[in-house]
Amino acid sequence: MNGKVNGAVETCRGEDKFVMSKKFKSYLNFSNPTIARNFDPEECAWAYGMNVFDLAAWRKTNISSTYYHWLDENLKSDLSLWQLGTLPPGLIAFHGHVQTIDPFWHMLGLGYQETTSFADAESAAVVHYNGRAKPWLDIAFPHLRPLWAKYLDSSDRFIKSCHIRAS
């Protein structure tokens, strides 16, 4: 990973303009001078749902203390530095420590992108049903549901009681 701590898929390039249009300005409050002074609004964000970490490289950094420092700064600012959630402080803490990895390591947006082909999704290392159309819901995209359903144990007592839709 070229000495970087975190391998992640970028979320600012790609055909899907909803999922793949995220930059720092999508998450951080650039009207705040502290944010504006330290970060570029046009910098590409990355997916926080699946990461590959080089722990030896991490130990050589101050990422953990950077994370806590910015959490404190956000508290002091009345929670105004970024949108609520775990991604914004992660973008800040890992800033400069992320190696872009191929999107097929982590295919995003399967809860948004109806146009994703089954073949493309099946070839991905990790599929991520971020978005509303979770595969267990009636609103799921039917052609993508089998990627999830093949791991569902329909004979499990708990699964039966949940009335989860597998097909």
Automatic annotation (TrEMBL):
Q: Does the keyword Cell division apply?
A: no
Q: Which UniProt keywords apply?
A: Cell wall biogenesis/degradation, Glycosyltransferase, Golgi apparatus, Transferase
Any one Pfam family here would be Glyco_transf_8
Bilayer topology reads: Single-pass type II membrane protein
* Source taxon at top rank: Eukaryota
Which Gene3D superfamilies does the record cross-reference, listed alphabetically?
Spore Coat Polysaccharide Biosynthesis Protein SpsA, Chain A (3.90.550.10)
Pathway it belongs to?
Answer: Glycan metabolism; pectin biosynthesis
EC number(s) stated in the UniProt entry for this protein: 2.4.1.-
Localization recorded for this chain is:
Golgi apparatus membrane
Query: What InterPro entries has UniProt attached to this entry?
Result: GAUT (IPR029993), Glyco_trans_8 (IPR002495), Nucleotide-diphossugar_trans (IPR029044)
Instruction: Name the family.
Output: Belongs to the glycosyltransferase 8 family.
Question: What is this protein identified as?
Answer: Hexosyltransferase
